[in-house]
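Our preliminary data section would be incomplete without showing what the modeling component actually yields. Below, a chain of 146 amino acids is followed by its predicted structure, encoded as tokens that our downstream tools consume directly.
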Amino acid sequence: MRALFLLACGAGMATAGFAADVTDISSKWAEAWSAKDLNAIVELYAPEPVFLANSGERWSGIDEIRTNFAMGLSEFTPNLTLTSVRSLSSGNLAYDSGTYDEIITPRQSTAATHVSGNYLFVFERQRNGDWKILEQSFTQFDPSKV
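Predicted structure:
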């Protein structure tokens, strides 16, 4: 579970409005994650999402993602910052990729761990026009900190 916290498509350039849309969702995810707001996190996902944990696990569906996130958030307090590097779209798919920095503090300790790496959010436009997270992945620059 700690590995989660040691993080817990396009044909052309996106317009400024589009980039703001998907990078705003990425930012909302990071804010909700840092606030340990599981309900706000889950609301950002498409109906059949996938989370690719940096431990190599594939979590499919809202229920599995919610369960794993809840376990992690009960054990750790995260402070996550995302920096978007590139956002592109094609039809009803889009992505936002960039770098992250995260400070993770175990619930039973004050000894925080700092990790950083890359992230990728893949979005799907829903029938109502909203963008939702379809797939998500984090990689870590220094996996030896796991």
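Strands lie at 12-13, 45-52, 58-60, 76-90, 93-106, 113-125, 131-140. The chain has one domain: 2-145. Preliminary results of this kind motivate Aim 1 of the renewal.
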